[in-house]
Input
Amino acid sequence: MDTITLKLQPKYHEEIELILQTDKESDYFDIPNGKEVVYNDNIYSFLLSGATSMPSKVYVNDEAYDTEFGSGDADGIRFSLKGCDRPFLQSFGAIRIEVWMDGKQYYSKSIAVLVSDSEINNGVINMIEYIYGNCEDYLYEEHKYSTILSGIKANETISLEAKIAFLEQTLEIYKKSYQYLKTNPYCKLEKTEAVDSFDKLQSISQRTIRYITNHIDELSVVNYDTGIRYNNQYYQPNRVLVERNSYSYDVYENRIIVGFLKTLVSDINVTIKSLLEKTYLKNKSSAQDGYIDSMYQIFSRSIKRINGYMKSLKSLHDEYQQLYYFYTRLFNISTDAVRNIPIFTPVFRSINAYRQIYTVIHNWFSIGNYDLGKDELLLSFISTSKIYEYYCLIKMLCHITQNTNYDLIESKRISYRVNNSYYMDTKYNNTFVFDKGSIKLTLYFQPVVYGDSRAFNGLDIFRNTSTNAKKENSNRGKTYTPDYILKVDYNGTAEYILLDAKFSTPENIRFHQLQELVYKYLFSISTLNKTDHIKGLYILCGKQLGNDEEDIIHDLAQKIGHSVSPFADILVINGVKTDDYSMTSTIFDNATSTAVPKGTAVDPQI
Output
């Protein structure tokens, strides 16, 4: 079969040629340092060579496009994407193209995206910095040490920070235990045999007699009537095989202690090697004048972080190597690496130093392997929309934990069942529960609102109509997936605020999206319980420059001092000043205004 290639032909830059394969790369770390790049603001057409038919559909990352035939000649099939001349406009980081043709899918490799060097795109980079610096306490709670909650669960994947912290803790336990074991090592009494002077002989065995008969040259004449008599003469050996009692440290528990050090040294070596390979992948920018290499902006942060990991691991490796030397000398043994949880013997159970070491060994084999959760999150940022969704999520969570007296009591990942190929569960935590006495606050990220009464994951709301807002969409729907839902429980009542994040401007939202959003989230969603109600809708937009601010929709009602319920408002939350929490404060204050009436003091956390 001929090689199938796809040429991307920009209007203002050089074309690039990609080989299409049936195997799809799955790891975003596998992005090469190739010269191929795409420009997010350029107009593109496409030339498909080596194929026998026109592609029916083309995906740019997760965005699907219908194709429009241009022409066909000896070079191949020329086509464009229907209704989209700038297919990479919202792309960030990297793009991967998927071509549907003759019932098969063909994939390109990943290519870095160059974005225009504008204030808006610099704001996106600020958002990435903010996510990178603040996401750990929320998104990976199930598998890492956190400054808010803590603990490692058995068989869970842990973050690399947690692994390093574990290695540091284990190192200290081994150091302290060494001081005790130098003077109180567990050992066993062994009988050994050695050739020594006759006066050291305490008992005679068959082996003693056999040694004497085999070494008659050791016999000497004695002038007393004891010893070995031969021809009326007595003999006594000068040296003989003597049995001795000695202490041996070659016991199961000591072999485990030394073997586990060998395990850790080997594991650290493997981890350093794996991390080193990742630093080679995107270690320089492909940016040209007027553009930013968005993939490099993501990788550079990960590489800097990975270099920090390697520095810590190399230091740990040296210390563990030294400990291994000390312990092997102490016990005078050589042993294999430990591969699984050892037996919990009476010695491990009863002697404190041994029990402490056994505990860390048991924990090591009980937890899963590490992952680069935060770095993998960043590397999954393939669109400005996704970056913005996570930015708003983390910013709301930071506001609640840092600027209010609500405590984060639970963060978890919930899987929703949806019969829809377009929906994909989030990989990270998506449900965050806060508590303040009689008030409970729950923030949901990309939840599913079902068209029935199932009330899944504490959401007692439902889609009340299958009719869609868009006239051109005649399909009947059964679910909605807003970006966020904020639920406030108090006095047996629940209030809901729905939020949708759009990397757009307030003007664009007003003219193109407002009616559909209001229809979806205010008109066609209802509460299951009569005492509950939907309070309103916030539309978050991130493409307007300047300060974060509120863009009032009910402007006429505001003029006469009248409040509208349910309300709808547009809030500008951009990346210009990531430390500006004025709009998240507006969201939180409005959400809790009924549960915490005006005039009630709500002290910020100290």
